[in-house]
Amino acid sequence: QVQLVESGGGFVQAGGSLRLSCAASGGTFSTYVMGWFRQAPGKEREFVAAISWTGGTTYYADSVKGRFTISRDNAKNMVWLQMRSLKREDTAVYYCALRRATRLGTTRHEYDTWGQGTQVTVSS
């Protein structure tokens, strides 16, 4: 059973950058889709970005397109989310997730394994 652990969250001023990391362990990682989701207080968990198992295909929510970049290194069992030009509305708990499939998914129900989340707070 794969386990996912996120890190890299914190406090940042609007316009700043953060890089989130997700470390996978305990099982097969390299052949599955990986995604990032986020959940703000009082809101549903929403899709942020996804990456194919090769890393060759990525997909982003419109709200982060052009500002966030998802990447992975299968040899290191790592996935990252580089976040730039952060806005207050990016404040949320960010979750790394694994989808046991080859096609990208954009809904939480398509993902099988989740990390515990890491808090990102953007202040104005």
**Radius of gyration, taken over Cα atoms and rounded to an integer in Å:** 13 Å
- The total count of strands amounts to 11
Unreliable sequence segments: none
- Which whole number gives the mean pLDDT? 96
Termini separation: 40 Å
Task: Report the structural category.
Answer: mainly beta
The helix content is under 10%
Notes on the protein architecture:
With 124 residues, this protein is mainly beta. The protein is 0% helix and 49% strand. The chain is built from no helices and 11 strands. Strands 2, 4, 5, 6, 9, 10 and 11 form a 7-stranded mixed β-sheet that branches. β7 and β8 form a beta hairpin. The model has no long low-confidence stretch (mean pLDDT 96).
Helix-strand blueprint:
Blueprint: E1 3-7, E2 10-13, E3 18-25, E4 33-39, E5 46-51, E6 58-60, E7 68-73, E8 78-83, E9 92-99, E10 113-114, E11 118-123
Parallel strand pairs: 2-11
Antiparallel strand pairs: 1-3, 3-8, 4-5, 4-9, 5-6, 7-8, 9-10, 9-11
Name a few traits of the molecule:
124 residues, seven-stranded mixed beta sheet, mainly beta
Concise account of the structure shown:
The chain is mainly beta and 124 residues long. It has strands at 3-7, 10-13, 18-25, 33-39, 46-51, 58-60, 68-73, 78-83, 92-99, 113-114, 118-123. The radius of gyration is 13 Å and the shape is globular.
